[in-house]
Amino acid sequence: HVQLVESGGGSVQAGGSRRLSCVGSRGMYNAYCVGWFRQAPGKEREAVAAIYTDGNGHSYYDDSVKGRFTFSRDIAKNTVYLQMNNLIPEDTAMYYCAADLRSVCLSQISQDYAYNYWGQGTQVTVS
Question: Going by C-beta distance under 8 Å and a sequence separation of 6 or more, which residues neighbour residue 78?
Answer without folding.
Answer: 23, 24, 25, 26, 28, 29
